[in-house]
Amino acid sequence: MKIYSEELSIKTEKKFQIVNITSHVERVVQESRVSEGFCLIFVPHATAALIVNECEPRIMSDYIKWITEVFRPGGGWRHDEIDDNAHAHIASSIIGTSRVLPVRGGALVRGTWQEVMLVELDGPRIRRVIIQVVGE
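^ that's the sequence the OP posted. Answer follows.
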């Protein structure tokens, strides 16, 4: 069994931002030389998340609209007394900080419109993304 790992640094520029990281993930999968297995993508942050979905400008603004409506910044959250970012912590825990995708034939398996995206919930920041590919 092979295990290949790489860590990326992604600099965000806005408080809420969607960053397409698919090309980075696909490059790591290719460099891993894993033919069959899986790819774990993980952001070790309590105020960021990962999604796998369509990456089109209008839907990306819809993701942010949904996040800000459901997890209202300044919405009277208790944690805001400390950091004023409770919305980001709650959204991250619901959306999730990791994704696992299959690797088949040496390539990441995705649906036609699926992209891997980092969701910035409390930027701007420098975010770490850990990509680990495991398999044969």
